[in-house]
Design a protein that fits this description.
Number of strands: 7
Region (Disordered): 95-116
Number of helices: 6
CATH superfamily of the domain at 12-89: Cytochrome b5-like heme/steroid binding domain
Pfam family, one: Cyt-b5
Strand order of the largest sheet: 1-5-4-3-2
Shape: elongated
Keywords: Heme, Iron, Membrane, Metal-binding, Transmembrane, Transmembrane helix
Organism: Phytophthora fragariae
Radius of gyration: 21 Å
Helix content: 25-40%
Domain Cytochrome b5 heme-binding: 10-90
Oligomer: single chain
Strand content: 15-25%
Length: 142
């Protein structure tokens, strides 16, 4: 489908409307991009997907943001995805990108809401673990 423009109203879908589109013949999915969950009809792309069509059909008809992000798609893949955009999730509220929240001092979270503790505090946790281990050895041999 054509990309939406400022002149074209954005079609809105509920998750219930997306759910039936879960086959290789009719494959829609929801992926959060640019802060909002967008709906994509990727049926025409299934045979061209480098990971094979089965991976996409497995998450068809649902929010596939976590699966999409976990794979680590390239910027080219993200740009290519735009051509399959058919709308957005009805009532979805734009959210700040996780990277921006982390830059502002907040903790990073994945699309599923899991907190990433590896960022700036990674070395702190390593030093803390070493201190705890040294203290345990000290008291063990006292």
């Amino acid at each position: 489908m054509a990309e939406t423009t400022a002149e074209t109203p954005v079609k809105e879908f509920t998750l219930e409307e997306v759910a039936p589109h879960n086959t290789a013949e009719d494959c829609w999915m929801v992926i959060r991009g640019e802060g909002i969950r967008k709906v994509y009809d990727v049926t025409a792309f299934l045979d061209d997907h480098p990971g094979g069509p089965e991976i996409m059909v497995d998450v068809a008809g649902q929010d596939a943001t976590d699966e999409f992000e976990d794979i680590g798609h390239s910027n080219d893949a993200r740009a290519q995805l735009k051509q399959y955009e058919i709308g957005k999730v009805k009532g979805d509220v734009k959210q700040e990108a996780p990277g921006k929240a982390a830059a502002a001092g907040g903790a990073k979270t994945s699309a599923s809401g899991r907190q990433d503790i590896s960022g700036q505090n990674g070395p702190l946790y390593a030093v803390l673990a070493a201190v705890v281990a040294a203290a345990a050895l000290y008291f063990k041999y006292q």
